[in-house]
Specification:
Helices cover 41% and strands 20% of the residues. It contains nine helices and twelve strands. The strands form two sheets. An eight-stranded mixed beta sheet has the order 1-12-11-10-2-3-4-5, with helices on both faces. It has a four-stranded antiparallel beta sheet with strand order 6-7-9-8, with helices on one face. Helix 8 links the parallel strand 10 and strand 11. The longest helix is centred in the C-terminal third of the chain and has 20 residues. Bound molecules: ligand L263DTV3. The ligand O=P(O)(O)OC[C@H]1O[C@H](O[C@H]2O[C@H](CO)[C@@H](O)[C@H](O)[C@H]2O)[C@H](O)[C@@H](O)[C@@H]1O binds next to strand 7 and strand 9.
Length: 281
């Protein structure tokens, strides 16, 4: 684990001392789940359920905060079962899906979801022309109910296709009152307004968190990082963790700790569990 500064190392020690009041917020793709070509089979890392349940004994709550639909991440992560074990350990598991538009938690156990934004069906009708004109007709289009994600990872030139598509997909989104969320070989189109930072604020309010760790890997996590940074400025012990990849470096500059992908995230959480246990005894 590589701290960005001595200050960051001190922040980790503060978080350990405040662990019993801490919420641990985790992105899914690229953080709990290794990146794969086909988004429909991006299962949680094999070790993650056990690591989360072990950590649950020491913290106030765990949360998965993702761009995925909540039902899909519950399935890919086996999070219903993880939630039962987390609950048995005396903690709670929250799932914020679609960048905070959907939610599920171990108290309620139902997915709460708003209606899809009005412009989404018109956007979808115009999308094939935009894909053809950007020479990306074979891009994979993931329909997520509240959003549409255009994936370039499986094209011959993923980055080139991404760059050709971003302006025209953004124009079509704006014409339908929608916003864009660029990510790792993906451009997501969804209603503007909600983001992962709002999920962080909701978690703090509902759990009365006294400390916060957030781990993410992509641009969609920047708002969560900003919300946690606000908490830090108010005096709360916090830690920002970047699950590093060669594809995206934006979060590394903002993080206290940079770790090597999901394996590194799980190692950090194992360390936090051990350190929090030693503080309790
Ligand atoms: O907020 P996240 O949990 O990081 O989810 C963001 C989007 O991730 C997914 O796409 C990414 O993961 C795929 C599977 O590993 C990969 O093929 C793709 O290139 C990545 O961008 C997902 O498909 C989206 O729906 C999520 O919103």
């Amino acid at each position: 684990m590589e701290f960005s500064s001595p200050e960051a190392q001190r922040r980790y020690a503060e978080l350990v001392r405040a662990a019993s009041r801490a919420v641990v917020g985790l992105d899914f793709d690229g953080t709990l789940s290794p990146i794969v070509d086909d988004p429909s089979v991006a299962h949680i890392h094999d070790d993650a359920p056990g690591v989360l349940v072990d950590l649950a004994v020491h913290v106030r709550a765990l949360a998965v905060v993702t761009g995925r639909p909540a039902r899909q991440v519950l399935a890919l992560g086996g999070l219903d079962e993880v939630g039962e074990l987390v609950h048995d350990a005396g903690s709670d598991l929250f799932v914020f899906g679609q960048y905070g538009n959907e939610r599920w938690d171990t108290q309620d156990r139902r997915v709460r979801s708003p209606r899809p934004p009005h412009g989404l069906s018109t956007f979808l009708l115009g999308l094939p022309r935009v894909l053809r004109e950007a020479d990306a007709a074979d891009a994979y289009v993931e329909e997520k109910g509240l959003a549409i994600a255009v994936h370039t990872r499986r094209l011959a030139d993923p980055q080139g296709a991404f760059e050709r598509l971003l302006p025209s997909v953004s124009d079509l989104a704006a014409a339908n009152d929608l916003g864009v969320e660029p990510g790792r070989s993906v451009i997501e189109v969804r209603a503007p307004g909600m983001h992962k930072g709002e999920a962080v604020r909701t978690l703090v309010r509902e759990t009365r968190a006294g400390a916060f760790l957030f781990a993410g890997d992509d641009l969609g996590d920047v708002e969560a990082f900003k919300a946690v940074d606000d908490l830090r400025r108010q005096g709360m012990p916090t830690l920002l963790v970047c699950s590093a990849s060669e594809e995206q470096s934006a979060l590394a500059e903002l993080a206290d700790v940079v770790v090597a992908g999901p394996e590194g995230v799980l190692d950090l959480l194992r360390g936090l569990t051990a350190d929090a246990a030693s503080v309790r005894t």
